[in-house]
Amino acid sequence: MSEEKVKEDPVKLHKDGYALYELGKYDEAKEDFLRASELYQKANNFFDATSMFYKAGECVYMLKDYETALEYFMKSADLSFDKGFDRFGVSALEYARDCYKILKNKEKAEETEKKIKEVKAKLAESF
Question: Which CATH number fits domain 10-125: 1.25.40.10, 1.10.10.10, 3.40.50.300, 1.10.260.40?
């Protein structure tokens, strides 16, 4: 007897995560978003992978777990900048900056704000 492994669908996880998020089930939503991100990365769908890290960050931010939120927002920002999604990366950095402020890490908050301004200036030059 062989059991076929059910192939996980990142789009279904993505949608389920959003539904859970809307219901305020942030911990469950976070798990779906993180799993979807992993699957999207394996499929080389980096934009959706970055957005899933971002959504996972929002979930734990809502749960007031700012250190974990910071980790997910930075993963989203790093992958975004690595793949050229600079505008999206700025949004993740803005959330990361806010986490640093809440955690009273003034130095990191200022460093992140500087990076945000640099990227925004670079983006403004491209128009």
Answer: 1.25.40.10
